[in-house]
Amino acid sequence: MNKKFKQVWDSKKGRPVLREIKENERWQFDFGESIGMLAFGQWFPAICHGHQTYMTTYDFPIRLKFVDSPLPPDDIDEEKERKYRGWNLPEWIRCAKELEKEGVKAIVTGCGITGTIQRELSKSVNIPVFTSTILFVPVIYNSLSYGKKVGILTVSSKMITRWDNMLLKECGVSESIPIVISGISESDYCETWWSQLNKDFDKKKVEEAIVKVALKMISEEPKIGAIVCECTEMPPYSEAIRNATGLPVFDAVDMVNYVYSIVKNR
Hints:
Blueprint: E1 5-10, E2 15-20, E3 35-40, E4 62-67, H1 78-83, H2 89-101, E5 106-109, H3 118-122, E6 129-130, H4 137-143, E7 149-154, H5 157-170, E8 179-183, H6 190-194, H7 203-220, E9 224-229, H8 238-245, E10 249-250, H9 252-263
């Protein structure tokens, strides 16, 4: 049942009655969860406090919705996978619409690579959608002094650039914006990074690994003026990256906090 009702006072009956909420009154359907988050139903759990999908990371409530079948079927061909933009698009749209009906004011997603479906998701609902920190690359670039570049830390650089830079284009990153992409899976620390899948992983070792990848990136390209962490597993290590590089670092938790700041009830 998708209809929403509110209780109003009926002066003739002398008691409160239920009336269906009109479209322009939907903002009143609010239980304090301004942000809705779409997370993978088939993924490893949030690793620790500070992770984007670990709810204690935030000082405000978030309505979490799991996308139970986030990926397209294994047996589809490359052409259809590209049409679906690497995801089970109908399922993501369905879940986004459910969050909107449940009263959230904005939607974020639990993986930065969903930036490939940014436009499809945003046009499917009437509330703002933020799929990826890559959306903020143009803003961050324009804040830097002339000649500076934006460094992007990701798990796999191929996922950022595949299908003719689909993710970058969807997120508004034009070819005129100078970026440097570094993927930890293409580094010497791939195995260390994926150790997070293990229950007893060593957080300090993973932190040291990603810091080394960040330092290597800026040593090879000294003009980098800020770093954007694409992966939602990276926020627990952002402070260490910031301290080691001396650069501004923007991650998925920063994105959620920003979104909340613009939609929260004051």
